């Protein structure tokens, strides 16, 4: 069986030799080029299983090689080698389609990990029954699925934006499940749910005796996700002190346990998400610009449910089928009830739709769900706040969104008797996030 062949593009003979020897010891074949022209000639002759290219070449730069590979052989992963500290070059290459990057001086253990991961990349996304699904056939959802298929092949950090309840974690799990790390752990972390004084030990682990109660060594999130994907949900909730430590871990790809002396290499793909606008958080001084730059290499924006109302019947059928499979009766919605759902603004998005249907299914007695059984807010069941009879907003977009958010929060607080912790849970946000929203909207 012919071994996989790796193309090495670098103008330094010593580095080419080191990389060649390391790859040959892994049982791989190699070919080398000293410049862009040489790489172009080799790429025209045959297909490679992986391309490693330096960013600085005598007759151009590594981005030219990246673009050649992406355009001529999209199934071939390409990684760039860049000077230490040149993070901007690495991020530019990732945005251009590079699979991953290596920092000089190249560490052979990191090289071997990258090669093993790259050679597992499938030619096409796998069709597997256990892969999470994003329900909907609307144009926005088709675009999201197409982008996820591309993102699954890369190791670039992805930032998933979107309102609460739009399926950000489902998208993250799908990226993981369709990629080369699918058989490795997927570790999901809600950054807003961890007390600030425990964050470092939770993320990086700790050594026995590091603090009172540390009776044995313990791995952190980075170690638990080794070889797989670490998903940081509500990343905007991280305090500044933790943002600094996370940035260093991403740059060095190494972490030090609390109470430890030596650093250990970590191999994780990072996906983050937030319902907050990270750009605004940077402007407000609540989020580090350099960390934002590292996390938001590629953004995946999840559409709100009101932007894809044609998917509501499919979502209703999916939720009803899931409830029926769990042994609960699944009454049918009347045409009027389905029409009311299509007119509803859904400030809580798909999560709110699930809650509405689960409540209606549980309380339904006649085997049919009508408009009254849905218990929708009257103001939004017929027209959305801020929307006139013509269907056009008569408020600026931000004012409209603030009003929807204000009504949802007030309704949740009324439902929980003013209990903010319970209201945050009902809305699907963290307590810290709810407190921030109350202050921003002048409700605190």
Task: Give a description of the structure.
By secondary structure, this protein is an alpha/beta fold. The protein has four domains: 5-118, Rossmann fold (3-Layer(aba) Sandwich), CATH 3.40.50; 139-301, P-loop containing nucleotide triphosphate hydrolases (Rossmann fold); 305-382, Orthogonal Bundle (Helicase, Ruva Protein, domain 3); 390-444, Orthogonal Bundle (Arc Repressor Mutant, subunit A), CATH 1.10.10. Helix content is 45%, strand content 14%. The chain has 20 helices and 16 strands. It has helices spanning 13-25, 36-45, 62-72, 87-96, 108-118, 139-153, 168-177, 199-204, 221-224, 240-252, 278-283, 289-295, 312-325, 335-343, 349-363, 371-374, 378-382, 397-415, 420-427, 431-440; strands spanning 5-9, 29-33, 50-54, 56-57, 60-61, 78-82, 100-103, 158-161, 186-190, 229-233, 254-255, 264-265, 269-274, 298-301, 332-333, 368-369. The strands form five sheets. The protein has a five-stranded parallel β-sheet, sandwiched between helices. Strands 9-10-13-8-14 form a five-stranded parallel β-sheet. Helix 2 runs parallel beside helix 3, helix 6 crosses helix 7 (168-177) and helix 18 packs across helix 19 (420-427). The radius of gyration is 25 Å and the shape is globular. The N and C termini lie far apart (68 Å). Residues 379-385 have low confidence and may be disordered.
